[in-house]
Amino acid sequence: MFFVRTASERDLPKVSALLAETWHATYDALYGPDKVSEITAKWHSVPALTEKLKRKHAEFVVADDGRVLAGMGYAALSEADPKVAVLHQLYVLPQYQRQGVGRDLFAELETCFPDARVMRLEVEPKNTTAIAFYEAHGFARAGETADCGDGRSGIPALILEKPLG
């Protein structure tokens, strides 16, 4: 059984490895292994994760059974609009998907921003599994972007939103 808890600095190497594994499993067929490795090295390195862990008005959680980190999630209030919580990451290792880990991580994150009125996320348009998960958890399509993540990625994404509160 996995328990959702706040991530700590000692978790970050395992979270980085988890993200590399889930990204390769999910995106190699779409972007190629080299592009996925490039993105992972930039976005999912321990220093990049450390910055997220230290960010104010953010929550960084992991699903832990005492031996394995099966999943992670990260959300933060939008700097442009504090009434918007942005779900930046929600990833579960392939072997633990469809076992409630993602649901439990998401359930924790959506309660962490009591003053937010909406949660927003970006998702790869061809990642139908993730889109189905988010739609099953109350998200609806709200737009799209040509540059997901850091705004310079060149990777298109759908924007999904869910009302909170």
Please characterize this protein's 3D structure.
With 165 residues, the protein is of the alpha+beta class. Helix content is 35%, strand content 29%. It has 5 helices and 7 strands; from the N terminus they run E-H-H-H-E-E-E-H-E-H-E-E. Strands 1-2-3-4-5-7-6 form a 7-stranded mixed β-sheet, with helices on both faces. A hairpin with a 4-residue loop joins strand 2 (58-64) and strand 3 (69-77). Helix 1 (12-31) runs antiparallel to helix 2. The longest helix is centred in the N-terminal third of the chain and has 20 residues, at 12-31.
How are helices and strands ordered from N to C? EHHHEEEHEHEE
Strand content: 25-35%
Identify low-pLDDT runs.
none
Silhouette: globular
Average pLDDT confidence is 94
Q: Helical percent range?
A: 25-40%
Distance between the termini: 29 Å
Rg for CA atoms: 15 Å
